[in-house]
Write a structure and sequence with these properties.
about 150 residues, about 0% strand, single chain
Amino acid sequence: MKPQFLFPSWCRWLGLALFLVHLPVILIFKSYDIHSDRADASLLSSGHLLFVLTVVLMVSGLFLIAFSRERIEDEQIYQLRLSSLRWAIFANYAVLIICLVFTNNKADYKDMLRLNLWVPLMLLILIFRWKIYRMNSSLKKEEGLI
């Protein structure tokens, strides 16, 4: 069974590069404290543009990492990817509901929505890589390599 659409396997490295480029930009962004949550901040201010740049770099990098094809993409990898996506969505919404129940500040809601941009992708990547690792280690045990 061929998946509907996945990026080529080299896109994982491009996504990793985009995500790693995001890290120093966000550190500079936080150190200069350019961004402000004031209502009178212009949409074209340098703080807003830098915020948008960092979010686009981070989300596009995580998206490419999460949805890049494996070198050998077979039915088992496809099922692992689907299962990982399901568990990432379950975990994300569980955390989101818990956070919504236990917060009462408007700024906290904005932070939760910002986190909701990248947490599902990060959970998908972590769960999928963990399942791949477990599958490979069990195969090595079966073959007697460990």
